[in-house]
Amino acid sequence: MTFRKVSHVLFDMDGLILNSEVLYTAAIQNILSRYGKEYTFELKQKLMGLQSHESAKVLISTHNLPLSVEEMIEESKKQFAVLFPNSQLMPGAKNLIEHFHKHNVPMALATSSSKESYELKITHHKELFDLFKYKTLGSSDPEVKRGKPYPDVFLVAASRFPDKPKPEQCLVFEDAVNGVKAAKAAGMQVVMVPDPRIEKSATAEATLVLSSLVDFKPELFGLPPFTS
C-alpha cells in the first residue's frame, strides 16, 4: 500500500502520547460509582475526543445523573487534579517526537484537552511537550467550536503553522475512532494506534493502523527515516 507524502505532523495526546485515557476512566468511574453507575468502554469510545462540556452532557444524560453540566465538570476537575499528574508516556511516543524534532519536521499538538488538564498531564513530561512549538487545546480554544469527530481541532492546529500547509500535507496520529473521523473530515491522512479493545471494523477509516508508535516507519510518508 502506498501513502501520500507529507511535510507536517499533528499529534493527539490522550491515549496516544500519554496513558491519560486510563486515568480519565478511573476519574469518571469514581464519580459514577457514587450513583451506582458504570463507565463502560462502549460509552468511553463515544466520549473520546469530545470537549469537556460535551462529555459532561453525554455522561449526565446516559446515566440520568442529578448533576448540572457545570457540577459534572467541577467533580471531574477534582478527580483529574489527583490522577492526571501520574500520566505516563506511551511506548514509542518520546522517541518519535524527538526524531521529528531532530529532523525539523513541523509538529503540532491537537488535543481536546483543556489548558488546565493539559498542564496536569504533562507535570513530569514538560521537556518533551516543549518540543511542540504549536499547541491547540480544544476545550480551552475559542477557535475550536466543536470537538471530534468534527475536524475543527486539526484544521485550527494546521492553520497555526507559519507556512499554512494544505490538509493533504498533514499526517495525524490518533488513538480514538472519533479522532480518526475528525482527521479524515479535515482531509488528512491518519495513523491510528487503537486501544486493543476497539473492534477491528471500527478502525477501517484510518490510513494506517499500528499496535504501537514503536512500529511507525516515517519513510512510508516521505518523512526522515530512523537510523539504527
UniProtKB/TrEMBL annotation:
InterPro entries: HAD-like_sf, HAD-SF_hydro_IA, HAD_2, HAD_sf, PGP-like_dom2. Its cofactor is Mg(2+). Keywords: Hydrolase, Magnesium, Metal-binding. It catalyses: psi-UMP + H2O = pseudouridine + phosphate. It comes from the Eukaryota. GO terms for molecular function: metal ion binding; pseudouridine 5'-phosphatase activity. The keyword Metal-binding applies. Its EC number is 3.1.3.96. This is pseudouridine 5'-phosphatase. It comes from Trichoplusia ni (Cabbage looper).
